[in-house]
Amino acid sequence: MAQLWGGRFTKETDQLVYNFNASITFDQKFYRQDIEGSMAHVCMLEKQGILTAQEKADILKTLKEILSEVESGKLEISTKYEDIHSFVEANLIDRLGDTGKKLHTGRSRNDQVALDMRLYTRKELLETDELLKELLETILKIMEENLDTIMPGFTHLQKAQPITLAHHMAAYFEMFGRDRQRMHDIYERMNYCPLGSGALAGTTYPLDREYTAELLGFYGPTLNSMDGVSDRDYLIEFLSALSTIMMHLSRFSEEIIIWNSNEYQFVEIDDAYSTGSSIMPQKKNPDIAELVRGKTGRVYGALVSLLTTMKGIPLAYNKDMQEDKELSFDAMDTAKGCLALFRGMLATMKFNKDRMRESANHGFTNATDAADYLVKHGVPFRDAHGIVGRIVLYCLDKKIPIDAMSLSELKAISPVFEEDIYDAISMETCVNTRLTIGAPGVDAMKQTIEKEKAFLADD
Ligand code: ARG
Question: Any coiled-coil ranges, and where (predicted)?
Answer without folding.
Answer: none
